[in-house]
Amino acid sequence: MWTITAKHLLRSKVRLCSAHISANVQRNKTFPCVSQLHFSRGQHSAPVYDQAAQTETMIQHLEVLDAQRFVCVHWKDGGQSLYPYVWLRDNCQCPQCFLQSAKARKLPIEDLDVNTGLEKVNLYNGNKVSIIWPDEHQSEFDAEWLKKRCFSKEARVEMQEELFLPEHEYWGSALKIPTFSYKDVLNCDQTAYNWLCSLRKVGIVLLDGAPVKQGELVTLGKRIGYMRHTFYGYTWQVQDKVDANNVAYTSGKLSLHTDYPALQYPPGVQFLHCLKQSETGGESEVVDGFHVCNKLREQNPEAFRILTSTQIDFTDTGIDFCDFSLQSKQRIIELDQNGELLRINFNNATRDSVLNIPAEKVQPFYSSLKEFVSLMNSPENTFCFKMKPGQVVTFDNWRILHGRRSYQSGAEVSRHLEGSYLDWDVVMSRLRALNAKLQPPN
């Protein structure tokens, strides 16, 4: 997926990154291998670099817009890109300014001249831009590196999609759960990559053929990076327990919920490994929460507004890995800075009786929440399946609400799932690393 995106990005026409800037154009002499420009910092014309025809070149010529403080790259495919002086200086890739082994900037912002000018610009073979700054420091930029970082809206959107994979495939009761071999996920990079891409896009993936033994999720977690340690441990056992410290550790019905909204930063991804399944009952229920949120926004904008603006208290108290007393404030529907769906925070069991809102807003809040939950439980939005021993369900805990039908408990454990968490930062890190590893060399 990312390989295709990257290739498309390099092929696509990157348009002019801002409104047309009129300027007087002066042409310099064309050099066989390099075109140069010398100009005074007070000059306001826009000299253009011509490049001799090269079959492999990406850049046709460079244009310096000194009054606007841009270097304009004219690509051979006909597109244009504007690069501010200050950004070019800040992102110098030389060893003095950038640590390649860590892919980290060394240049302190304190040493950055935000009003820097240019002394000289060279274009080499249509693929490398060299800049000499007023303090005689030299920076070099590859054409491919520059093009991927163009400031046009289209290029910025494509880069963000490549980095974060924001595309979602919404679903309801007709879901076809993507399924992969557990063994192949552990041993094949391509399968592991496909699994995580599907997890990101669909929100839920089933892995088949895992050994039916406790502790296997640790192996799966290490395939990605590391697991999230919580007050319930690195892994936790979902089974009927005496004096249960969590409603999941009973045999009763679990209503649809996301895990751990009592944490200020709830885990992003959850694994559940089926070790033993009850003969009757115990079916899993899942809902695409983002799909339901979109329906709520269409059908009742006011309810959507209330749930995205009202902070609700969540609490979780008990003893497990250690004793704990958690308290958090969450919006049940969390939006990002662009107003897009980011996370659902809802667990009715841990929703606190403390409600820090004015009394007159209580009834509208409950009415909004009830409509949201009714949409979740609608048969057209709910998918039901029964896990088998050796299956691992992996899902997006920020997006997918999950529940369980009741089952018959007995003298012995009749149903046993082992669970664990990971953060999305860790999962996305592995996704990007696998993508880089699987991409063919240029």
TrEMBL record:
GO terms for biological process: carnitine biosynthetic process. NCBIfam families: carnitine_bodg (TIGR02409). Keywords: Carnitine biosynthesis, Dioxygenase, Iron, Metal-binding, Oxidoreductase. Residues 171-421 form the TauD/TfdA-like domain. Its cofactor is Fe(2+); L-ascorbate. Pathway: Amine and polyamine biosynthesis; carnitine biosynthesis. It is an enzyme of class 1 (oxidoreductase). GO terms for cellular component: mitochondrion. It catalyses: 4-(trimethylamino)butanoate + 2-oxoglutarate + O2 = carnitine + succinate + CO2. GO terms for molecular function: gamma-butyrobetaine dioxygenase activity; iron ion binding. This is gamma-butyrobetaine dioxygenase. SUPFAM superfamilies: Clavaminate synthase-like. Catalyzes the formation of L-carnitine from gamma-butyrobetaine. Gene3D superfamilies: 3.30.2020.30, Clavaminate synthase-like. The keyword Metal-binding applies. Its EC number is 1.14.11.1. Residues 67-146 form the Gamma-butyrobetaine hydroxylase-like N-terminal domain. Belongs to the gamma-BBH/TMLD family.
